[in-house]
Write a structure and sequence with these properties.
Largest sheet: none
Structural class: mainly alpha
Shape: elongated
Radius of gyration: 20 Å
Number of domains: 1
Number of helices: 9
Number of strands: 0
Helix content: over 70%
């Protein structure tokens, strides 16, 4: 894991150098943005909304019994923005787009397409990694914002139809509890998660050697490693911003 982390850092530095050289094409960024986030939008929103609905059902009943039903909106919002939306969206995109990135680059590696790029005196790490990292860093926060809005709206509807909580009381609680700091940290998390998804999965694919069997193994490892690194990053971000 330590060696792999070192490889990721090296590849990130190479990607930044390639980006600063101005060789990254805008068309490539648009294509990768569509592949990474737009194609994962439906599954990401579905997972986030289901999580918001389930949490609202659990919270609403308990809060109603204790007479704290006016706090339901704020509670759901804080949970959604701080943890559920960034985490679940990143996991969904990692499971769908991250594994696709790993499989694509691994297939290029085993079919010697990477060696062909090297013969043209083009840095394969920068060529393959930079557009994907930039696209993920830009679009994953966008998906997270949409997921947060859907999650808060889902909580409003569920609390209204289950315990009859008036939407005004729900939204009033949201405005009282929500702070811009939480939104900024949520977007920062999404940015870091997006970079990690693209970087870790691309690095795992780039390290693939062998044939078709190794491509499948590499894809599985990419999903596992990206999830582990995202959870570690989530812990560190929460430790820095909410503890200290």
């Amino acid at each position: 894991m330590i060696n792999f982390l070192g490889l990721c850092v090296q590849n990130l530095i190479k990607s930044i150098k390639y980006l600063c050289s101005g060789q990254v094409k805008f068309k490539s960024i648009i294509m990768q943005s569509a592949a990474i986030s737009y194609d994962s939008l439906t599954i990401a929103l579905t997972i986030t909304c289901i999580a918001a609905v389930v949490i609202t059902i659990q919270v609403a009943k308990q809060f109603l019994m204790s007479g704290a039903d006016t706090y339901i909106g704020g509670t759901i919002t804080i949970i959604m923005i701080r943890e559920i939306a960034p985490g679940f969206v990143a996991l969904a995109i990692g499971a769908r787009a991250g594994t696709a990135i790993s499989a694509e680059i691994a297939n290029m590696q085993v079919t010697e397409q990477v060696d062909a790029i090297k013969t043209l005196k083009v840095d394969p790490v920068g060529y393959y990694f930079a557009p994907r990292i930039i696209s993920a860093a830009i679009t994953v926060p966008m998906v997270v914002i949409i997921a947060e809005l859907f999650g808060i709206l889902g909580g409003l509807l569920v609390s209204y139809f289950t315990i009859g909580l008036h939407p005004y009381r729900y939204l009033n609680s949201v405005w009282l509890w929500l702070k811009m700091k939480d939104v900024y940290i949520s977007l920062f998390k999404a940015l870091i998660f997006g970079i990690l998804i693209a970087l870790v999965c691309a690095t795992q694919g780039y390290q693939t050697r062998g044939g078709a069997k190794e491509v499948g193994i590499s894809t599985t490892k990419a999903a596992i490693k990206s999830t582990i690194f995202m959870l570690m990053a989530d812990f560190l971000i929460n430790l820095v911003f909410y503890v200290y």
